[in-house]
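Per your request, structure below.
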């Protein structure tokens, strides 16, 4: 199905105010009205097209959703019945002798929900003209029929949810406050352990209310993980840096390494070089909905003192001839 640009159809800018939309439609409706273009199928189709564009853009809510979701997304939310509900073309065309009744007020009754013009409406003259005898012909009986279309769903709301690394790893309970259509709302959400950056948590029915009495939209919380002062995260693995002295690197040592829950003693083997990574299996980020975990890597850096005491210098000078 070809995308429809309602603004282009009416020949207006996206910033056009309501009065300009009405003027543009009235001008085009008079040009393509079936009463003035007898036996002209192209004009009938054009009249249908501009009427649909006006029905959407003249309604504040429909226009906002069309702008937000585009043609494809809009038509997933609105049936043809939804689009024309509440539209009154009669008031626009009555000054030109084309009827004054709101023909759309009676369109949705009857078995099968076929659409017919109400008597005396702006299409009454068209019926008598002989080009076509009912509203179904203009707007397409088959293409314009709706089988009990469900009310449109409310807008979804997407918000960022910022977590510390430990909250993301271990799980948490967070209170979220937000504005939806000018109203302050609040919800408490449980964060599953191991949730990753960019993941979205869906809370059904916590979004915006439906404009037509349907179900509310959903609330989506997009996860953001804050920088941690201790750990760096790469996927499911964590990295922590530990400094040791030159003598410890040469002789080996044991160091206390922070993990997500508690400290762990780790042995540094003799002869360890700077930038060596020691792997601690299973102490990284847990994987959501899984018993698996990433790993923790300890990155070793060797501290070289900038200033030596007299005794330190004497010992180093004694070791220098021996290759140290």
């Amino acid at each position: 199905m070809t995308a429809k640009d309602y603004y282009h159809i009416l020949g207006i800018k996206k910033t056009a105010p309501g009065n300009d939309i009405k003027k543009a439609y009235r001008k085009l409706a008079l040009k393509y009205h079936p009463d003035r273009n007898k036996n002209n199928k192209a004009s009938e189709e054009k009249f249908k097209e501009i009427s649909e564009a006006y029905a959407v853009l003249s309604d504040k809510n429909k226009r906002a959703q069309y702008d937000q979701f585009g043609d494809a997304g809009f038509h997933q939310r609105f049936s043809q019945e939804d689009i024309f509900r509440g539209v009154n073309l009669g008031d626009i065309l009555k000054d030109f002798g084309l009827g004054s009744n709101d023909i759309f007020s009676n369109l949705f009754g009857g078995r099968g929900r076929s659409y017919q013009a109400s008597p005396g409406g702006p299409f009454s003259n068209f019926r008598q003209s002989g080009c076509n005898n009912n509203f179904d012909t203009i707007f397409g009986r088959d293409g314009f029929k709706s089988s009990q279309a469900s009310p449109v769903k409310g807008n979804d709301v997407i918000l960022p949810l910022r977590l510390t690394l430990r909250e993301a790893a271990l799980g948490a309970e967070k209170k979220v406050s937000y504005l939806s259509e000018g109203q302050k709302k609040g919800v408490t959400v449980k964060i599953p352990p191991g949730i990753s950056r960019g993941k979205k948590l869906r809370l059904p029915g916590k979004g915006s209310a439906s404009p037509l009495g349907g179900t509310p939209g959903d609330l989506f919380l997009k996860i953001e993980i804050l920088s941690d002062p201790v750990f760096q995260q790469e996927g499911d693995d964590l990295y922590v840096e530990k400094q040791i002295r030159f003598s410890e690197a040469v002789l080996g040592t044991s160091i206390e390494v922070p993990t997500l829950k508690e400290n762990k003693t780790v042995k540094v083997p003799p002869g360890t070089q700077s930038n060596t990574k020691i792997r601690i299996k299973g102490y990284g980020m847990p994987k959501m909905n899984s018993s698996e975990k990433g790993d923790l890597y300890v990155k070793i850096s060797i501290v070289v003192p900038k200033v030596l005491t007299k005794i330190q210098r004497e010992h180093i000078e004694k070791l220098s001839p021996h290759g140290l």
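The chain has three domains: 6-139, 157-225, 232-322.

Regards,
D.
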